[in-house]
């Protein structure tokens, strides 16, 4: 829908992109307020039990809460990448598929989707690296809690170095983790590059 040409297209694209330009720490504090005070107020107004759940205090829910905020914040960036990919699909190829008798569904799955390979590669690479290095949103929302329910590797390295004052151990862990992230991302990148379709 956002690739269609209509008067408010840029406005709606901007709405999706606004969360991405905000600091992740600020986004975390905003959503921490929403999960606590905001949902409590909604529960008072509506009486719906879903608003009364402990989204940041329940070990079964907190992971999904943190993941939701991360997806909400970064969604606009990936939308921009996919819009660019969709607009780069050659119209003559789509017209040729129409002439060959392909319907809308077939054009999407047989032509458009394969040509979105570079966009898929970029988005998966970026989301993987962002997921592996996630830190600020966890620090703002839960600080790794409750217990260790949202404790990430980066949060653990931070605690080891700056909470426990084991700077040497924290530095060693960060170097090992850097090498791990480097290997994983390179393998993923090569795997997806092989599957891309060239015109």
Bulk shape: flat
- Low-pLDDT ranges: none
- Tell me about the biggest sheet? none
The value of Rg in angstroms is: 21 Å
CATH architecture descriptor name: Orthogonal Bundle
Write the layout of secondary structure elements.
Blueprint lengths: L8 H13 L2 H23 L15 H26 L3 H9 L4 H12 L1 H16 L3 H6 L11 H11 L3 H29 L4
Helix pairs in contact: 1-3, 3-6, 4-5, 6-9, 8-9
3D architecture notes:
The protein has a single domain (9-195), classed as MetI-like (MetI-like fold, Orthogonal Bundle), CATH 1.10.3720.10. 73% of the residues lie in helices and 0% in strands. The chain has helices at residues 9-21, 24-46, 62-87, 91-99, 104-115, 117-132, 136-141, 153-163, 167-195. It starts with 8 loop residues before the first helix and ends with a helix. The model has no long low-confidence stretch (mean pLDDT 89).
List its traits.
flat; 199 residues; MetI-like fold; mainly alpha
Q: Briefly, what is this?
A:
With 199 residues, this protein is mainly α.
């Amino acid at each position: 829908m956002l690739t269609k040409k209509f008067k408010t297209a840029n406005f709606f694209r901007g709405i999706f992109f606004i969360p991405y330009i905000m600091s992740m720490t600020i986004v975390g504090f905003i959503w921490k307020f929403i999960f606590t005070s905001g949902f409590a107020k909604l529960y008072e107004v509506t009486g719906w039990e879903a608003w009364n759940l402990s989204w940041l205090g329940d070990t079964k829910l907190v992971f999904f809460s943190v993941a939701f905020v991360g997806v909400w914040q970064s969604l606009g960036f990936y939308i921009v990448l996919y819009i660019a990919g969709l607009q780069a699909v050659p119209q003559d190829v789509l017209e040729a598929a129409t002439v060959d008798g392909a319907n809308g569904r077939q054009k999407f799955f047989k032509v458009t989707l394969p040509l979105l390979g570079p966009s898929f590669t970029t988005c998966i690479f970026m989301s993987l690296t962002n997921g592996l290095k996630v830190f600020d949103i966890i620090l703002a929302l839960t600080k790794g809690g409750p217990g260790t329910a949202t404790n990430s590797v980066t949060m653990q390295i931070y605690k080891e170095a700056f909470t426990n004052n084991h700077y040497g151990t924290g530095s060693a862990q960060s170097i090992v983790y850097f090498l791990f992230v480097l290997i994983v991302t390179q393998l993923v990148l090569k795997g997806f590059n092989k599957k891309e379709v060239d015109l």
